[in-house]
Amino acid sequence: MTIPASLFPLVTALVCNLIAQVLKTIFYYLKSGEWDLHWVVASGGFPSSHSSTVTGLSMAIGIQEGFNSALFAVTAIFAFIVMYDACHVRYYSGKNIELTQQLIKDLKDEAKINIDYDEPIYKEQLKAVLGHKFTEVIGGFIIGLLIPLIISPLFL
What we know:
This is Divergent PAP2 family protein. InterPro entries: DUF212 (IPR003832). This protein has one domain. Helices cover 67% and strands 0% of the residues. The radius of gyration is 20 Å and the shape is elongated.
């Protein structure tokens, strides 16, 4: 059974995402010595699956349609926007969450006045790791460059 060449960009993007997500689990184990399978579906961490997915998609389009095509230009700009967002906007949103959670904890510990912390908003557990550090984005970018080159012979 042959896989249609038209599916090359889609399959490439999905494979890049899957590889990055699995690698997150492995790198977490190497760093901590503990297996934590939630990293297979988690956002944040090394390497960035957002970056690997959009870079892989853009590379696959470039390989298939040509690096001078309008479609490649669109996907390349899309990839840069996603990587910028992952590295800056989402990363600092996560930092904001960490700061807010610490302020609430400090207020609870130090407050001389009676503040009602029974409101649901104070009990909500927000995920602080939303985005990526620059090295995590670069890791995903490299995966997104390599995987299309490796799997393109299966399609083209």
